[in-house]
Amino acid sequence: MTIAVRPASVFEDVRTLIGPKSPEANVCWCLSYRIPSKLNNELRGPARGEHVAELCRAGTPLGVLAHDGDEPVGWAAVAPRSDTSFARSRKIPYVDDLPVWSLWCIRVRPGHRKKGISHALIAGAVEFARSQGAPAIEAYPLDNGDAKVDLTMAYAGIRKNFERAGFTHAADTTSVLAGHPRVLMRLDLR
């Protein structure tokens, strides 16, 4: 298996990773942190996918995708923090005034887990942010220790995977997900 991580700009590949099985389903589409909450609440069912398709057509990749050959097998959402709801978060603090990027969602398709794809996605997101001029990248993973994490809520990643990728603990947060505290992890790209 050879995993290649590329910018997520092809809607069909993005849909494979973050779209619902039923077009009418009201799933996240990884928009919850990307768009203002008012718009996020207004977009229902197919309108969510249509919005993601528009973003893909606009030409700015929404993150990165891991491919096994031609098959999309993993997703990571990454963008400038200033373009996300983390810019206004009261629970996730700012460390300094650097125009950092945020990495907030990692998803690996069933049948492809436990093969190192999440590690490749983190590395690919770091390289994408670096290529776009980011001075640093942040993530807000669960600090779960050795406790199991429900796969649905593991989208934020887990602390030890970011530590393996060279991120360091930069701040505690008041955010909790699936009963686990989230921490602010950071990697300087300068």
List keywords for this structure.
alpha+beta; 5 helices; 190 residues; seven-stranded mixed beta sheet; 7 strands
Structure description:
The protein is α+β, with helices and mostly antiparallel strands and 190 residues long. It is 25% helix and 27% strand. It is built from 5 helices and 7 strands. The protein has helices spanning 11-18, 37-42, 46-57, 117-131, 159-164, and strands at residues 3-7, 63-68, 71-80, 101-108, 136-139, 168-177, 180-188. The chain has a 7-stranded mixed β-sheet, sandwiched between helices. Helix 4 (117-131) links the parallel strand 4 and strand 5 (136-139). It is globular. The relative contact order is 0.16. The model has no long low-confidence stretch (mean pLDDT 95).
Low-confidence spans = none
Total strands: the figure is 7
Overall pLDDT score = 95
Strand arrangement, major sheet: 1-2-3-4-5-7-6
Number of helices: 5
Order of helices and strands: EHHHEEEHEHEE
The biggest sheet amounts to: 7 strands, mixed
Beta-strand share of residues: 25-35%
Tell me the structural class: alpha+beta
End-to-end gap: 32 Å
Anisotropy-based shape: globular
The percentage helix is 10-25%
